[in-house]
């Protein structure tokens, strides 16, 4: 027993066993607590197995996205400053505006032509010659007029509208009272004032007459009765404001075939 206890060489054999107490001291040593804390901190925050490889790419994405946003914002700002729309829509819009303006101008011109631009000369140029009207088997509207007649000029647009509506079924004849060729017709129809409208059936028989400025419906209703072949017209003897036929400026016929 004394030999074992006094043997100094036996003590070092058990020193590795006592290193456990050194390990215990590690947990008690305050100087090592930061290492311990850093170790657990890295474990607790480590959500990605390879943070050093993916984090730069994530940061790159974060940096790239603001750039793209800035680019898109700058493009939007540039486009808004430049006019708000791309070039092609602007051309289409301008083209549509131009077409709409053109159509509106044409419509306005047509409307003004119908309401204000029709002249007695236009009506006489489109009129059917009197001799032809008496022989083609259609009812006839004969207007006695003069170029100097104010009421005749005022009624020209109304005459034109009615004529356009019934020209396929009714003859429209214009006789200028200044033309001596129509002296016999002036006496026959008893023309004293102008415009004088005589309404004849298809056989040339007078059914009624209207003299002077009257509403267009009078003329239209009479013409409609002629077109439907009725035996009489609703307005057979009506007189409005007119110009006296005695003021006519008689001139000789230049062309015997002229109906004006």
UniProtKB/TrEMBL annotation:
Pfam family, one: Thioredoxin
MF GO annotations: oxidoreductase activity, acting on a sulfur group of donors, disulfide as acceptor
Region (Disordered): 43-87
Domain of life according to the entry: Eukaryota
GO biological process, one term: cytochrome b6f complex assembly
GO cellular component: chloroplast thylakoid membrane
Key words of the record: Chloroplast, Disulfide bond, Electron transport, Plastid, Redox-active center, Transit peptide, Transport
Location of the Thioredoxin domain: 97-228
Subcellular location: Plastid, Chloroplast
Gene3D superfamilies, per the entry: Glutaredoxin
Comp. bias intervals (Polar residues): 43-57
InterPro entries, sorted: Thioredoxin-like_sf, Thioredoxin_domain, TxlA/HCF164
Family (UniProt): Belongs to the thioredoxin family.
Stated name of the protein: Thioredoxin-like protein HCF164, chloroplastic
Source species of the chain: Gossypium davidsonii
């Amino acid at each position: 027993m004394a030999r074992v206890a006094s043997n100094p060489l036996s003590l070092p054999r058990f020193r590795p066993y006592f290193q456990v107490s050194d390990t215990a001291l590690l947990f008690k040593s305050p100087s090592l607590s930061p290492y311990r804390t850093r170790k657990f901190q890295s474990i607790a925050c480590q959500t990605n197995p390879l943070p050093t490889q993916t984090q730069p790419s994530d940061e790159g994405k974060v940096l790239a996205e603001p750039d793209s946003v800035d680019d898109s914002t700058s493009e939007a700002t540039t486009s808004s400053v430049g006019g708000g729309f791309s070039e092609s829509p602007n051309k289409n819009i301008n083209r549509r505006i131009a077409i709409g303006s053109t159509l509106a101008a044409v419509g306005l011109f047509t409307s003004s032509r119908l309401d204000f631009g029709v002249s007695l000369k236009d009506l006489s140029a489109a009129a059917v010659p009197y001799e032809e009207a008496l022989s083609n088997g259609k009812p006839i509207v004969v207007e006695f007029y003069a170029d100097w007649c104010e009421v005749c000029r005022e009624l020209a647009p109304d005459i034109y509208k009615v004529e356009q509506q019934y020209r396929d079924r009714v003859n429209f004849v214009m006789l200028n009272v200044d033309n001596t060729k129509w002296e016999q017709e002036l006496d026959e129809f008893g023309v004293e004032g102008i415009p004088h409208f005589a309404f004849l059936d298809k056989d040339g028989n007078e059914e009624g007459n209207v003299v002077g400025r009257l509403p267009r419906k009078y003329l239209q209703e009479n013409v409609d009765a002629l077109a439907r072949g009725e035996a009489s017209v609703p307005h057979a003897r009506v007189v409005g404001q007119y110009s006296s036929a005695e003021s006519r400026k008689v001139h000789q016929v230049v062309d015997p075939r002229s109906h004006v």
